[in-house]
Amino acid sequence: MRISCNELEDTFLRIISGHGFTEEDARDLARVFAGSTIDGVYSHGINRFPRFIREVRNGTVLPEAEPEIIRSQTAFEQWDGKQGAGILNALQCADRSVQLAGQSGIGCVGLANTNHWMRGGTYGWRVAERGLLFIGWTNTMPNMPPWGGDRNTIGNNPFVMAIPRSEGHVVLDMAMSQYSYGKLEWHAKKGGMMPEFAGYDTRGEITRDPAEVLATERILPAGLWKGSAMAMVMDLAAAVLSGGLTTCGIGDLPAETKLSQVFISVNIRQFMPQREIDSITREALDFIRQQNDRILYPGQRALEHRQKCLLEGLEIPDELWKEICSL
Prior knowledge:
Mean pLDDT: 96
Strand order of the largest sheet: 2-3-4-10-5-6-7
Number of helices: 12
Low-confidence stretches: none
CATH class: Alpha Beta
CATH topology: Ribosomal Protein S8, Chain: A, domain 1
C-alpha cells in the first residue's frame, strides 16, 4: 500500500491524541515517528509504533510526565525523565544541550529514568540543523551477549554523532550490535537473509538468518570484541553522567524503561565558520568517494530516502498499515 507522508503523520497524530498526550506533545511524537519512517528507518518508525502505543496503555510510558532538572552546573546538567515518552524527553534534552552550548561553547545533558528514544539519529539531525556538532548515546536492557559469552548481559547501546554541513549533514546512527533487533524484525517479516552475519542460531553457530537470531536473542556485537567493549563503557558512562541505571539495573525491571542517555552539543561555529567546516568535510568525503565511487557517507541514504518519499510517498505492507489503523 502506498500512502503519502502527510497521511502517515496524520494517522500517527490521530492515534496518539487519544492516549493522554497534549496536542503539542502528540504532534512532536507523530512528527518523529513519521520522520524516521520517511528517512527509511522503519524499524524505529512505523514498525515500532504499535509497541509504543502498547507501552503507553500498560503504563510503561507516562503521557503526563514532564522531565525536570536535578542538578546544574555551568555547561553540564542532569535530568530526570520521570518515565515519560522517550522521544519527548530526548527532544527536550537535546535542545537543552544546544542552549548550554550557546552559553559555554559545549553543553552536556545526562538524562535518567526515561524510555526508548526510538531512532537516535533524530537528535543528531535536529542539532545539526541548528549548526552544532552532536554526540549522544543511550543504554538499553541486557539484549546482547558480550564477546565470548552466551548470556545477554550487555546492551546494544545506540550511538549518534552528527557533523553539520551545508551540503547535507553527516549523521552516524549505529547500535553496538551488527544489527538492531528492529532491523532483524523488519527483515524477518520480509523473509530472506541479512547481508552479513547477525548473531547465533539455536545450534550456537553464527548465522545471517534474522529469524534464528530473534529466536536465540543472541545478536552479534559490531566489531566483535571491540563493539562489546564499547557497549560496556558507553553503558557505564551513560549511568555516571545521568545518575541513572546501568544495563544491569534496567534488566531487573519488568519492562525496558528507566534508561540512561547522554546529549552533548558543541557550538563549533564559535571557533570555525560554516564555510570552513564545509571545506574540511568536502575534502575528506571527496577523497573517499574518488577512490570508492559507490561509498555513501553516514546520513546520505536517509537524506536520499527522505527526498524520494516526499515526492512519491511510502510503500507500507498492507498488514502493517491495517495494524496501525486499528490501534
